[in-house]
Amino acid sequence: MTQHSGPExxxxxxxxxxxxxxxxxxxxxxxxxxxxxxxxxxFTVPEFTSLCxxxxxxxxxxxxxxxxxxxxxxxxxxxKLYLTAxxxxxxxxxxxxxxxxxxxxxxxxxxxxxxxxxxxxxxxIPIDVFWQTGEPLxxxxxxxxxxxxxxxx
Length: 153
Description:
Elements: E1 29-31, E2 41-51, E3 58-68, E4 72-74, H1 76-84, H2 93-108, E5 112-119, E6 128-132
């Protein structure tokens, strides 16, 4: 896994090929301009896709990623490319959701991170997956993810 910590070498501002897999995708990080301030950053990914590792059929989800940064922010273009790399990647819902959370935690060492994977049903059963690094910080407003429980999303 490659990670960059300065503006040089970032994928931002230049042509970047789509990574062939999440393992090959490069996530970039940039310095947090407010490292002494607790605040929440949220990424909502309304059209996340991966492949079922058994059937090869597409799976669809809404991902909500909340984190309280410490020294680093994830650079959003690299995050988009990383998440796009799952389109041709076979993995179960749990592996995708938790794996993304673990990789971001390894890259950023945030004060707090949580990810919710709200998966559309396959075989008649929606599987929603939630993971977090620990207890939310009391100093940060942690809003509801905003994704309704399954009612034929």
